[in-house]
Design a protein that fits this description.
398 residues; alpha+beta; Arc Repressor Mutant, subunit A; Aminopeptidase; five-stranded mixed beta sheet; three-stranded mixed beta sheet
Amino acid sequence: MVIQLSNKTARRIFLAKQGLSASPSRALTKPDLLQLILDLGFVQVDSISTVERAHNQIIFSRNQTFRRDHLKQLLEEDRELFEHWTHDASILPCAFYPYWKHRFALKEAGLRERWAKWHGEGFDKAFDETYARISDNGAILTREIQKADHKSGGWWEWHPSKTALEFLWHTGKLAISGRKNFQKIYDLSERVIPAHHLAAEVSHTDFVDWACQSAIERLGFATHGEIAAFWNLVSPEEAKDWVSANRDGLDEVEIECSDTAKPRASYALKGLSPEMENWPEPPGRIRVLSPFDPLLRDRNRAERLFGFRYRIEVFVPEPKREYGYYVFPLLEGDRMIGRIDMKADRKAGTLNVTRLWLEPKIRASVGRMAKLDAELARVARFAGVSEIVYAEGWNQGV
């Protein structure tokens, strides 16, 4: 029997799984923060800080009592979290580290083959030298090792330091022990990752099972392609084989899309309720999401569920941008209602709002605009600025 999920129910399920259905004003302790990241699976890290860095904003949009120092402690002191790669650079629970060992092994083979073609034979000698230097002298910033080797006339003159450090990090030999002004500090993995996580081993079968099971748990429902893409750890073929091997524990579901497209055939773990009233109604307030929010990471899935087409335009030439360089999506209740272009000017102490776009059929009612003002005030406080400045015509045409 195929279970039918209405579009509204599907949105509620996904929002609940993504931590966006609980009250954003509830007290968030440090253990709560760790649990939130565990529930999400990962929080993407990005260097752009137009208003706030992505990882901070992702958490803040779910809970506005979030304290940045708690995240730093969990990463750099408690060692409950580590930084590595999913589909992009991310913060992950250290409990997942044994599964990432399979990624390290896969990446090492691929990187060595590609980079040998790129740099020629003997390129990996630089990696051994870098590893030895960190082993002997301790943790180091990219700029520090780069500066030291330029002085000595070493191999850095023909091979960028970042390449060696990134290779050793991607293959698990190094780990990020912290950051200074957002620059990575690299050290040996055994000095960063707790020993019990570092030593733990899982078989390839258990690795694939965990990757697929944990992905569908966090998605609520998914195709085998969506399961594979969640962590970017297994191939679509491996996810497809996992679905076939675990059909007794899965239900077939059809997801009503937001447009007129036919329902999307997917799978869910048995026991997932198709009744909307069994899923929490998300808070009605408006929330500004990061462009890298996990709710929107799979752009096609977000478009099917929310009827919201979102593309980040950082790398799009300015004349070709539809909206702007770094435009923030807006969530209201269980609907994506628009996007806003803004930037924090910390020297001036202002949040400068440039433009607002609302989705078709979304009205700029007095109540909705008041909710947006309230959210922007919260964002401004979080960004450390005291005043919101609206550009002339910022809401023109909404």
